[in-house]
Amino acid sequence: MEKGRLEAFSDGVIAIIITIMVLELKVPHGDTFATLRDHDHDLWPKFLSYILSFVYVGIYWNNHHHLIKAADRINGGILWANLHLLFWLSLIPFGAGWTGETGFAPAPTALYGVVLLMAAIAYWILQKAIIAEHGKDSLLARALGRDLKGKISPFFYVLAIATAMKYPLFANSLYVLVALIWLIPDQRIEKVLKEDDRKH
């Protein structure tokens, strides 16, 4: 399979994920801003959950693009690793919907963290699958280096999951912190690709 087909399929799935999330934001019945704070249909937690989840999906889409760009070829292991990542990303709308619906209650907050943790692990597996196919001296392997952000993110997720049942606000703050860490696009792969282009 050409990598363009894999990237196009992934882009389509990610676009659907975002569409599902926005459809969870039900239009209020009313024509004033006060309607947004109706006790029976409080949209603010849902909207905040949507924003955070949109940022996370956007981060994965951005970094996935650079990841696939660094690959020269695709094998079966990479295909399955990519599907594994998309599986966990597809659960983000469920996690976002539940946390928003319940006003960031403990159990939904913990489950949301599990989904984010598993997506991070799936992304790491995809990286390893691409490096295994291209070698330890490949562009991607050189670009990732020590991958500090990739190593500290799961730690924050685990900490958030462990504390969510008692301190859901703290747990959600950790999810926001990880998103902020990754919000600036990762330039490592792009930098190595540019250097490689200059050599050729």
Report on this structure:
With 200 residues, the protein is an all-alpha fold. It has one domain. It has 9 helices and no strands. The longest helix has 29 residues. The model has no long low-confidence stretch (mean pLDDT 87).
A few lines on this structure:
With 200 residues, the protein is mainly alpha-helical. The protein is built from 9 helices and no strands.
Helix/strand layout:
Layout: H1 3-23, H2 44-69, H3 76-90, H4 92-101, H5 106-134, H6 139-144, H7 148-163, H8 168-183, H9 188-199
Helix pairs in contact: 1-2, 1-3, 1-4, 2-4, 2-8, 3-5, 4-5, 5-7, 5-8, 7-8
Question: What attributes does this structure have?
Answer:
single chain, 9 helices, mainly alpha, 0% strand, 76% helix, 200 residues
Oligomer description: single chain
Give the SSE string. Answer: HHHHHHHHH
Mean pLDDT: 87
Q: Name the beta content range.
A: under 5%
How would you describe the shape?
A: globular
Question: Strand tally, please?
Answer: 0
- Note poorly predicted spans: none
Q: Give a quick account of the main beta sheet: strands, pairing sense, barrel closure.
A: none
Q: Whole-number radius of gyration?
A: 19 Å
- DSSP helix fraction: over 70%
First-last Cα distance? 25 Å
